[in-house]
Each structure stands twice: as C-alpha cells, then as structure tokens.
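new request in #modeling-help
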Amino acid sequence: QQQVKQSPQSLIVQKGGISIINCAYENTAFDYFPWYQQFPGKGPALLIAIRPDVSEKKEGRFTISFNKSAKQFSLHIMDSQPGDSATYFCAASIGNYGQNFVFGPGTRLSVLP
Amino acid sequence: GAVVSQHPSRVICKSGTSVKIECRSLDFQATTMFWYRQFPKQSLMLMATSNEGSKATYEQGVEKDKFLINHASLTLSTLTVTSAHPEDSSFYICSARAMRGTEAFFGQGTRLTVV
C-alpha cells in the first residue's frame, strides 16, 4: 500500500514535444506529491509539487495533473528541450513536507534535438 | 532553494574498511535529515531518518550497526558505512528538512565504490 507506481520506464520525445509521465498510488493518507528531476551522478532536485486539494498546478513548462478519485497524478513537460533529458521521480508522502517519502521507480526521459 | 552539501562526492575504499559521508545544510537549520540509497537505474530507497540530538530511525532491513548515522548538530549529519563490502557500493543521498517543516532538499549524492 506504500508503493507508488510510475510509467513509462523510459520515454523518448522530440524537441518541442510534450512529455507525459504517470504515477499511481494506493495509500489515501498520502497528501503531498512532488516530482523530482535527477541528472546522472547528481542528487534529485524538486521540480514541482501538488497537494490533493487542487487538480492541477503549473510552473512554467511543467504541469502536474492530479486525480484524487483515481489516485493518479501525472507530470506534463510542454515544449520539451534536450536539457530536460534526465530521470524523473514521482513521490508521495504523509504529513509534513519531506517526511516518509515513497518514490516511484523513475522515468528516464530523452529529448532528441 | 536551500543548499544541502554532501562530502565526498565520490569515494573508493577497500573491503573491510569504514567510510564516512557528511551531509550539511549550508543555509538553514535542519532538524531532520534523511539518508537514501540508490542503485544504478533504480529509485531512491529510504535507509533512515535522523533528528538532531536523537537516535536515527532505520527502515526495515537496514542494518543499524553497519550504517551508523549521527546527527549531532542542526547543520550536520554523517553516515558511516562500517566494514564495507562490495555489495555496499551504491549512490548515497541525503536530504534535509528545515525546522519549520518546509521542503526537503537533497544533497548531490556520494558515489561509494568498495573494492
């Protein structure tokens, strides 16, 4: 019940295209859903996060869509760029920020020039 | 965002020796720090949570005598891998949360190779 599922495992997108990564969870106690971006050999960096009281959050080219009833959330990267090529992790936690994170398995995104 | 620094970024040690990894919050006081382990092309697995001045809480399956965690101040936590073996080779990442319970920020990670 603590698991967070993520798909696809890898994704190849042309420059300018839309990258979409999906996550699903079971534990309805989760109330904080961040997305992290990780470049090879580096630690993850927070990209964008959402709480279940909103259905969508947009920051620049990055948008989280959240479906509470389906227990699913997704990351959309608009106008994808080669610099977006990285591994993306969704996560979920209960309570305060940063506690008891459960990470998805990750999606390796490659944006072709 | 806030800065969390790990040192060293890479370390190679001989089997049977111990290695210490430092995690520092540079511009905020971190009451809680988290230690993760990440195998190649895999996700982050939480190893332990440490609160300043308290004993760390280890996740199930993590040997506390092998992975010693110390969080002696509000800006520093250390992870010591004792009697390291090749199977301990991994990417270790810390994260830190400020006192007021805001976002957790991640360090850049430490690549440990045990030979």
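bot summary: Chain A touches chain B through 20 residues (CB under 8 Å).
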